[in-house]
């Protein structure tokens, strides 16, 4: 457990990663290589039906400055420059996507034993300003996340979150979508040696008065292979297998089944079979 409450994005992150990270209905692979000078080159590809999407990411490190450059199959160029601790606890991030010249953004992050602050400003004439702040400790944290559109003078986002953490359990409560969505999540590390953990999330929409419940688990079959599974109250069941076939090079395969559709098809088939 680290010192301080972390950033707002850390609230509920363990449960979100367990329940949603890397899940997709397509095949994905990642290859990472390192040059003798320490330059990291990562290539990833995703097969979506008959389409194949890929990107190449190059990472260069020089002292406390990290530069990431990524190019994808749509000819987009993403550049991120991160400066770690120009002052104690401070991090500066500059990002830009070409050809979208309005995507430029500068972000400042500050971590303290009892607070975590992140603010970003778009590099445009009428930028969107984001601010998030957390106060507390590494055990209990309370935070808020805001976005302000200087062009319209409106708040486009205001969220709030609460997190409780101990040695093997993390629970969080967040209010999102301008107060319309309330989510409670739970993450429990069952066996750190086998990376076995379970998690759950309950989300309530005040606008539709609907609830979504998702539960999931993960387990490491060996040091290089892990499996994950999840199911929700809408009948969607998903499974994932991820294998690290070389250092930091991953092959991921996942799938999703609509159990309600299967059940409906089975009932129709049974009815046709019984029809005289």
Question: Topology, please?
Answer:
Blueprint: H1 13-20, E1 27-34, E2 40-48, E3 51-62, E4 65-72, E5 77-84, E6 90-98, E7 105-112, E8 115-122, E9 128-136, E10 140-149, E11 154-165, E12 169-176, E13 181-191, E14 196-205, E15 210-222, E16 225-232, E17 236-246, E18 249-258, H2 259-274
Antiparallel strand pairs: 1-2, 1-18, 2-3, 3-4, 4-5, 5-6, 6-7, 7-8, 8-9, 9-10, 10-11, 11-12, 12-13, 13-14, 14-15, 15-16, 16-17, 17-18
What can you see in these coordinates?
This protein is 9% helix and 62% strand. It has helices at 13-20, 259-274, and strands spanning 27-34, 40-48, 51-62, 65-72, 77-84, 90-98, 105-112, 115-122, 128-136, 140-149, 154-165, 169-176, 181-191, 196-205, 210-222, 225-232, 236-246, 249-258. The protein has an 18-stranded antiparallel barrel.
Low-confidence stretches: 266-275
Helix segment count?
Answer: 2
Radius of gyration: 22 Å
Question: Could you give the distance between the termini?
Answer: 66 Å
User: What about the largest sheet?
Assistant: 18 strands, antiparallel, barrel
User: Count the strands?
Assistant: 18
Arithmetic mean of pLDDT:
89
Structural class: mainly beta
Q: Helix coverage percent of residues?
A: under 10%
**SSE string, helix = H, strand = E?**
HEEEEEEEEEEEEEEEEEEH
**Percent of residues in beta strands?**
over 45%
- Overall, the morphology is globular
Briefly summarize what is shown.
The chain has 276 residues and is mainly beta. It is built from 2 helices and 18 strands.
Throw out a few tags for this protein:
mainly beta, globular
